[in-house]
Amino acid sequence: MATDELIHVTRWHNGEKTFSPFSDGEMSRRRDAMQSLMDEAGIDACLFTSYHNICYFSGFLYCKFGRRYGAVLNRDGVTTVSAAIDGGQPWRRSVGDNVTYTDWRRDSYFTALKELLGGVKRLGVEFDEVSLDLKTLLEEHFPGVELVDCAAIAMTLRTIKSPEEHVLIRKGAEMCAVGGRALMAAVKPGVPEHEIALASTSAMVRGIAESFPFVELMDTWTWFQSGINTDGAHNPVTNKLVEAGDILSLNTFPMMFGYYTALERTLFCSHASNAHYDLWQKNCEVHVRGMELLKPGARCCDVATELNKMYEGWDLLKYRSFGYGHSFGVLCHYYGREASVELREDITTVLEPGMVVSMEPMIMLPEGAPGA
Considering 234, 276, 287, 326, which one is annotated as catalytic? Predict the structure, then answer.
């Protein structure tokens, strides 16, 4: 069969829409809010290509694996664009319509987009997500269309969580605790980090599966480090054996419908030295004070500055290595960081009702120092 005789773009509405933790009204609220921001910016339509924005506006979280995905938001609603390898799953997960393109021709993705973007003069795309390659191809396939950034305004919208989002994030916090308890029960001298992390992750996956009538079980993970491996908050799990007296870093991350929640704590195996205990107490004081500062009207930079004073008073400020916390929501370790709500000295965002922000102070003392 010739290539031109094959199907290039179709609609595979296979099965029925699946369970979502969000009501139709909630998804309409997001779309309408974004449409209002687009109207203010003179944007005719948005083509979202990131994991987080496609998920936020449609409910569908894609698996890229070298293919292109998208969600077109305009006055007709939100339509996802997905690869045929996914079958009807994107349709079942999307709140609106879905268009499927096949592998048989390299430009089938853009053929699908042309069906959805006819007459558009100003197209919103995510400048922090679109590669130079995709930008070039969009300009080739849509000559005369002006590409403008929509990532910043979409991120601003995502930072304010709705009551329905709060419910899901609180459920995530419950699952964090499930993972944390399983992790602590698994910690013993001689047990490798990966076995401890697996106990945590497995407990969270089972807990998530039991919490919803239907849920895709993907991306839930645990970072567990011991000894020198704790010097970086995002260091990977290894096969290092935990030793008595080791400082331990517990980090549990249940992922549900694309939403991230985290529990991050410092532990010790069997016992802690006096130096470790002293530093742990000081860090707890910063944590408590930080939570007191997280109120509507506070600026992110002012929170960081206030907490810096505490560390400075103990001559520990030089051991800080990253910000004090960040926004929660549609994000993971590979997508969605809401950079405008970071508790750092260079972020002037004012905290607002509805925002969900972590408080996670950390200091790292180098190997050989008391309490390292």
Answer: 234
